[in-house]
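Budget justification aside, the reviewers requested a transparent look at the raw inputs and outputs of the sequence design task funded under Objective 1. We therefore reproduce one unedited record. The lines immediately below are the structure tokens for a 181-residue chain.
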């Protein structure tokens, strides 16, 4: 009986270890967005506590950013962003779920490989299919993923009041950086 228990425990422990080796994770990813317009105050925010998980066997990827984690240089701008535009109390998270197309851990090196990410981005209560590119590279045993892309607030039903519309770019540039361990 003890032998059967020991075998079962080792079997399940071994499965858990194997499964955990299939995933690379971070809770300290960074997303920077900028919607600045020349001649006006900088509209830029940084969130340095973004979670991301990558299944290195399947290429599945998911990321979650808490909206209130975005920090601006100007506190009033941050307040307006959370209360008036993105409505972070009503829509507290931005979530991306998708797949890194043609992901193959063996073909990733320290110089980086440009790969396509396809999935759904949920923001401000709107879910939208997106396709973006990322540079994926090995950093020792870790994987670094960096993506630059543009979003349009109107695509996510984010309303910018007329009075400040000329001070905010119609297209928001987003840069996401993850070091997955």
């Amino acid at each position: 009986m003890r032998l059967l228990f020991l075998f079962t425990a080792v079997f399940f422990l071994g499965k858990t270890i194997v499964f955990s080796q299939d995933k690379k994770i971070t809770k300290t990813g960074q997303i920077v967005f900028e919607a600045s317009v020349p001649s006006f105050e900088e509209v830029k925010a940084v969130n340095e506590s973004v979670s991301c998980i990558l299944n290195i066997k399947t290429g599945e990827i998911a990321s979650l950013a808490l909206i209130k984690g975005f920090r601006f240089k100007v506190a009033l701008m941050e307040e307006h962003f959370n209360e008036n535009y993105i409505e972070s109390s009503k829509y507290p998270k931005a979530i991306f779920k998708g797949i890194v197309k043609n992901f193959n851990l063996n073909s990733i090196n320290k110089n980086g490989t440009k790969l396509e990410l396809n999935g759904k981005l949920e923001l401000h209560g709107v879910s939208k299919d997106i396709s973006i590119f990322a540079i994926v590279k090995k950093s020792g045993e870790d994987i670094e993923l960096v993506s630059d892309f543009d979003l349009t607030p109107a695509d996510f039903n984010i309303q910018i009041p007329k009075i400040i519309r000329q001070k905010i770019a119609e297209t928001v540039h987003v840069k996401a950086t993850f070091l997955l361990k």
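Confidence is low (pLDDT under 50) at residues 1-19. The beta strands are 23-34, 44-55, 60-66, 71-72, 93-100, 113-123, 126-139, 142-151, 172-180. Computational costs for records of this kind are itemized in the attached budget.
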